[in-house]
Structure formats: C-alpha cells, structure tokens
Amino acid sequence: MAALLLGSLGAAGAQTVNLRILETTDLHTNALGYDYYQDKPTGEFGFEYTATLIKQARDEKPNTLLYDNGDLIQGTPLGDYVARVKPLAAGQMHPMHAAMALLKYDAGNLGNHEFNYGLPFLKQVVAASPMPIVSANTYLEDGDGNPANDKNAFTPYVIQRKLVRDTYGRPYYLNVGMIGLLPPQIVDWDKANLEGKVTTRDIVQTARRFVPEMKARGADIIVAVAHSGIAADYQPGQENAATELTKVPGIDVVLSGHSHQVFPGPVYKDIPGADIASGTINGKPVVMAGFWGSDLGIVDLTLERQGNHWKVMAGKAAVRPIWDKAAKKNLVTPDPAIAEAVKAAHEGTLAYVRGKVADLATPINSYWALVQDDPSVQLVASAQIAYVKAALAATPYKDLPVLSAAAPFKAGGRGGASYYTDIPAGTLAIKNVADLYVYPNTVQAVEVTGAQIQEWLERSAGQFNQIDPRKTEPQALVDDSFPTYNFDVIDGVTYEIDVSQPSRYDKDAKLANPDAHRIKNLMFGGKPIDPNQKFVVATNNYRASGGGKFPGLDGKNIVLASPDETRQALIAYFTEQKTVNPTADGNWKLTPIPGATLLYVSSPNAQKFAPAGATLLKTREDGFAEYTIKF
Fold this sequence. Notes:
Blueprint: E1 16-24, E2 34-35, E3 40-41, H1 47-60, E4 64-68, H2 77-85, H3 95-101, E5 107-109, H4 119-127, E6 133-134, E7 138-140, E8 157-165, E9 171-181, H5 186-189, H6 191-194, E10 198-200, H7 203-216, E11 221-226, H8 242-245, E12 253-256, E13 262-263, E14 274-275, E15 280-281, E16 284-289, E17 295-306, E18 309-321, E19 323-324, E20 329-330, H9 336-341, H10 343-353, E21 356-360, E22 364-365, H11 375-391, E23 402-406, E24 422-423, E25 426-429, H12 430-436, E26 442-449, H13 450-460, E27 475-476, E28 489-491, E29 494-497, E30 519-524, E31 527-528, E32 534-540, H14 541-544, E33 558-565, H15 566-577, E34 579-580, E35 588-590, E36 597-602, E37 614-619, E38 625-630
Parallel strand pairs: 1-4, 4-5, 5-6, 9-11, 11-12, 12-16, 21-34, 23-32, 27-36, 29-35
Antiparallel strand pairs: 1-17, 2-3, 7-10, 8-9, 13-16, 14-15, 15-16, 17-18, 19-20, 21-25, 22-24, 23-28, 26-32, 26-33, 29-30, 30-31, 36-38, 37-38
C-alpha cells in the first residue's frame, strides 16, 4: 500500500490531505540582501527575506514541502569567493547550503550555472549538501556512442516518505516523488568544463522515461522541478520546456525557473493553456518564483484517497514577493539566522571585493549601453584584445587582425531597475571589475571571416524592435525578450544598426528575413570589410562554444581556449594601466531615422548621463524610467 494510514480511520469522513509545496529558484548566491557591486545593503532581493516567507507559509499549513530549483552556487562575488578565492575545504558545506539547512529543504535541483566552476567543485558541493540534489537529464559521457547504457551523472530523482495529516488530523505516510531537470544546452554553454565528461538529453523525453518508473516504485504524487522556463510551444531539445511538462502523464506539479520571471504573472498571460488566476497550465499547478530570492513560490494541492492511491483533486499556485516595487519597501523582515550562517563567507567576500585594482579617472555606467557605444563595454573589449594578442603572439594567428566582442551584461531588463553598472570615479576595486563582468567566463578567441562578422552582428541586432519611420508617436526600441548579454558589440570595426529594417534572425536565431540587413556600412580600417578576410575575435567560452546561437559559432573555430577568466584579464589590464580613463571609441551607432521618436527604458539615474536628444518621459511604478530619443 503506497500510503499507509497510521491511526484508525473509523467511520469519519473522506481521507483528504491538503499539501503545500514551496519553491525557491535562481538564488544565485544571494544569501543576503547585499549588493556586492555597490557594496551596500538592499531589500530588493536576498534569501534572508525569502526565509521569512518560508516560515510564514509553513505556519499556515501543517503539510509542507520545500524545494530549490537551481542556479544556486554562482551569481555574486560570494560564489566566486568560495569557489576560486578561498575554495571550500573537503566536506565543507557551501554557504548557501548552510543557510538553507536551517530551513530543512526536502531536495534541490541543479541549474545550468551550477556547472560554471567545473565538475570537481560541483561534485564537492553536492557531496556536502544537507539535502538530496537531483538532475535526471545529465549523463556521464562514456564515449561508446550507445545512449542505452549511459549512466546518470547525478541522482535523477528521489521518492521521499513524508508524514502528513488529513483534514481530521489523522496521520498518513505519503510518498512524494521529485525529479530534477535542466536545460540540455549546458554542454554548449559550459563546453570547456563538460566536453567528454557529461552529456544531456531532452527535458520532456527524460521525464517521460522516469515518471512511470517513479510511479512503479510507489510515488503517490510527482513534482517536476525543472530549471527551465515557460514557452508557448515545444521542440525536442529546447531550453524552456516547463509548459510541455504539464502534458506528461503522472506529473502533478511543475516548479519552473531559469527565466528570472514570475508565474503566475502577466508575462505569461498568452501562453496556451495558462490560467493566471489559478496558477495552472493545462490544468496543472505551475509556479516560477522570480530570482535572487525576490519571491517564494507556493503550490497548494488537495489530495483525496481513492482505494490504495492518492489523487490530486485540486491545485493552485501563487507567488509571494519580498519587495513592494511601487512603494519601494520590504514586505517582510529578514531572518537573522541566515546572516549568521553565512557570516564568515560574507565577511571574506567583502574583504576580497574591496581590494584595489587601479585608479578610475571618470565614472563608468551602463545606463545607455543599448543605444550608443559605451565605456563599460569598451573596457571589456579592450582588455580582451590585449589578452588575446599577447596569447597568440607566438602562434600562426599572430598576424591576423584581432577584434573583440563584448556585451552589456547589466542593462536593466529582467534584472530590474537597479541592475546597471554604476561605478564612481576614484578607486577601481575587485567589486567593480565583477560589476563590469558578472560571469565567471574564460577568455576564448575564434577565427572568422568578414562575412561571418556581418552575420554575428546581424544576430546581435535582434536586440531591437523594428521602428516604423512613418510613425510619429514614441516606439519601443529594445526587445525585452532578447537578453542583453547577447547584444555583442564588436570592437575593431565600425558599423551602423538600421532598426527600420526587420531583424534578419528571429528569437531562436533562425534566418527569418533573408533579404533584411540591419548592419550597414560595416568597415575595417576605414574600408568596406572584405567578406573573405580572416579575423580573430576575442570573446568568451559561452559565445565561442555556441551560446546564444550565433551563426558561425559552434565551438569548431576556436583558436584560443584560455583557462583564465575574463575578469582576470580585466584585472591585469587595469593593473598595468594604473589609472583607467574609460572612453568609448564610438565604433557603432544607430542609423538616424528622421522624424521617428524612440522609447527607451532605463534607470531614473540615467538622466544625468543622458545623450543629446534623450528626454525623461516618466518614472514608472516598477522603478524604471522611460525616455524618448529623437534623432
């Protein structure tokens, strides 16, 4: 019998259990409400606030489960500190796990960023975890070409026996199955760490394989914890497949993540089968709890005993935020036990990020990085060029021109109105370098042709909506669904971006408008670029290995795969300069569209750095400010 009644049933009514499932996701080492880049506290994010919500939600319901949905161990300098600066000792619990142990999590899932520091570190973290860590669609690469005998790299799922009480207070054991899933693209995104070691499989096909097995092993209900976003359609192998998981027989609940969004929420109102009011998709409860501890995901189920089995009779989902965006205030107080649990790591991180690198002559910010060439991107590009030229000096590639691709990582968007680089003049510290370059990527370089440079930039130009020159009302310039980390600016060439043209590539990087060309006047050395000329482009391991689905970048044309992180290249570059004077060389611009008015969203702080033609329109309730730009 899968679920055992401990007490006497007697003649009292139906056996009904109310079960609450809680989710955190994409915490990204934000244990505290502390912005390490600005070196100051904040109430807008932080697990110490989410912990209070968890305790409140548990007090309301006697039967509660708690899961984490990955992207836990990377994302702030604290993550870098315990992975690279002062690495965890053997058997030492990760600070995030030390904090989460206080909340007694039932299990955790792996996300894509768990692999950023390499497999040895990840396995060390998993081994010391206070809760089971699962991942069903990651497999060990055995090299025999036969997927039938592949072994899981991690535990694929757990079935946990939980003591619950029904509506009459009678105790039962309930077998809860939890399966973990992540984007199969990790083998591309972290190719340097995973090639020849780990392979991945489709999210939905993996679920269809394991769910019947979980049922056969006695799981009364199954929770799919998927580090995967919510999409309108599904193709095998895709990154965001949470919607399709709701169609898998046997799955009762889907916990989603990865996209740094909130479900139920208006972003997903047009998803087929989605009911925003009840928090369901295709009739099954689905939740996505924001990012950095911004929200707690809550799923409430009503289970009814039918024979020897339990059936989900009703389910709904909701999210609870820690921050009131309109009033700009906290909705809960932080749990002091969390700060105590991570005290040593936090203090060590502060000492690390405050270390001086160089002097900074003028401020750096990224408020306008999507409309004009920007010093925050230029500095990264220049450092990459210096590094790659030195690394290739004694190789057959030494005589090829070296260009550099860099993107504005912190440019608002899903990170919120405070997610911008803003570094004052004065001391340039480690925290500022991490602010300029937030990911632990390594330096890589690829060999491409002039024609491939054109296509690289065409894909990058998908950042923008198409602007109608005939309209006089303000038109939104930036496509918010396009991540700013994919807006590569290539330094060493000059070009314009004509946003009156449709994007050549669609959101999935497929050639959508073959006759369209947004990139105009692409020049090298003051002359039109030769489509056949060869170049070396300095970039990072994510892009060089195919991350972002850029044409011509699939990991096969890498000419330099450095073990050094890009941030280390930046530190070396700034240290050599001693005094950094950030300027942009203006190598790209938007093609003027006479008469058109662009609508651009940035921080209210952007006003003091506004370029000519930009005017503040209003500040919105979500904290962003709207600006109009006229040519």
